[in-house]
Design a protein that fits this description.
With 394 residues, the chain is of the alpha/beta class. The chain folds into 3 domains: 2-65, Arc Repressor Mutant, subunit A; 73-240, 3-Layer(aba) Sandwich (Rossmann fold), CATH 3.40.50.150; 265-392. It has helices at residues 2-6, 8-16, 22-25, 37-53, 55-58, 69-73, 77-86, 101-107, 120-133, 145-151, 182-192, 206-213, 261-266, 283-288, 291-298, 334-339, 358-365; strands at 89-94, 110-117, 138-142, 156-161, 193-200, 216-224, 227-235, 243-250, 253-259, 270-271, 277-281, 301-302, 310-312, 321-331, 347-352, 369-379, 385-392. Helix 8 links the parallel strand 1 (89-94) and strand 2. Helix 7 (77-86) packs parallel to helix 8. It is globular.
Length: 394
């Protein structure tokens, strides 16, 4: 496969047909280099996904992209680059190599690296791509994480593991249902590395993950463009106070919000009616669970203990999320709906601790989708359901 797809005429064909339909390509005949139509179509589909996920790799002649699940599961260039910027040292090992994206970007911060992967085809692909990318200091080893730890006795500054969450053809969320079992491996991992970094599902229960791993120093919720991409558990043998950080990467900028569980548990929050401004924290903060801390630090009130919006009479600058100016607040009732008059033709509907989902509420209000304004279904302090009409400030 690699030899066939690496041919210059095949690479040129893929670039020339970058926007073509892979499905239509799969039916064509007389393709370059004698490459089968299904193989060429699969590579084209992978390259199209790489346009957003791995844009810099598209600029290298000769890169062969993984297909199927490997491409779907691999880290994006954005998140892999961010991780590489947080860790550096003499050596690291990626024990679940996969598409090789994390290993390649981490290799920029380490003098020596090991990519370990059980699948032979993925190892061949990684070896080829690392050569094209000039990452000669990355060693490719075909091995499971368990076998690598049993046979290789080297120590590392960092061991990175991204457990397979699709074991037994099911999407797993917790560590116990993933492969390798990092909970079982943790004692050996801590002996072999100063830092162990575990990538988890964005859906993971963070508190349960901390309990399962037992040696967590830091949890990072990593979001890109207000979408949670990864939850990272940094573990180490040396005990340190647990920190939780919410990192949001948006349009080339990074916002970091760091807190600890004790601060969140003791932060004082004032319940308040919906005031002149509403604040919606970025998804990294809400996933990290900083519901009380963010209110306390920015001096904001909360409409309801379980409504994760915040409010103030005067505008609070530099809030880590969306800020709205409130135009009207109406009861969610027949009378309230009759009074609803919007100063814009289209609106984006939101649901916050509200009995109707956003799509259902939008249908009920007969609103066309648009970003001209916002209508929010919100539960306030006394359990009352209200509609908030607002416009975006930033």
């Amino acid at each position: 496969m690699i030899e066939a797809l690496s041919q210059p005429d095949v690479q040129a064909f893929l670039k020339a047909h970058a926007t073509d339909s892979p499905a239509k390509l799969a039916l064509q005949r007389h393709l370059p280099g004698g490459v089968s139509a299904p193989l060429l179509a699969s590579q084209l589909k992978a390259r199209q996904k790489a346009k957003d996920k791995l844009p810099s790799w598209l600029g290298w002649d000769g890169i062969i992209f993984p297909h199927g699940v490997a491409m779907e599961q691999c880290s994006s260039e954005t998140t892999a680059s961010w991780k590489a910027g947080q860790y550096k040292g003499a050596s690291f090992a990626d024990l679940t190599g996969g598409a090789g994206v994390d290993a390649f970007f981490l290799s920029r911060s380490f003098a020596r690296g090991v990519y370990a992967e059980a699948d032979a085809e993925r190892c061949d692909l990684a070896r080829h791509n690392f050569g094209v990318l000039g990452a000669q200091h990355l060693q490719v080893v075909q091995s499971t994480a368990e076998a690598f730890l049993a046979t290789n006795k080297d120590s590392f500054d960092l061991i990175y593991i991204d457990p397979d969450r699709r074991a037994a053809h099911k999407r797993a969320v917790g560590f116990s249902d993933s492969t390798p079992d990092v909970v079982q491996l943790m004692p050996e991992l801590l002996k072999r590395a100063n830092t162990v970094l575990i990538k988890a599902s964005p859906m993971i229960d963070i508190r349960q993950g901390i309990r399962d791993l037992g040696a967590v120093r830091k949890v990072t919720v990593l979001a890109v463009n207000n979408e949670c991409k990864e939850v990272l558990f940094e573990c180490g043998a040396a005990a340190q106070p647990l920190q939780i950080e919410a990192v949001h990467l948006l349009q080339g900028k990074e916002h970091q919000f760091v807190f600890d569980p004790e601060e969140e548990a003791t932060a004082e929050v004032t319940l308040a009616h919906v005031q002149a401004y509403l604040y919606d924290p970025n998804v990294a903060i809400t996933k990290a669970g900083a519901f009380r801390t963010v209110a306390s630090r920015y001096g904001l009130g909360k409409p309801h203990v379980n409504t994760h919006l915040y409010t103030s009479d005067t505008l609070v600058p530099d809030f880590p999320g969306r800020v709205f100016k409130v135009l009207d607040v109406l009861p969610f009732s027949s009378k309230g709906l009759k009074r609803l008059k919007l100063p814009f033709a289209k609106a984006h509907v939101m649901s916050k601790n509200f009995p109707l989902e956003a799509a259902e509420l939008q249908k009920r209000l007969k609103l066309k989708e648009g970003e001209e304004g916002f209508v929010m279904g919100v539960t306030v302090g006394n359990g009352e359901r209200v509609l908030v009409v607002a416009e975006r400030v930033n």
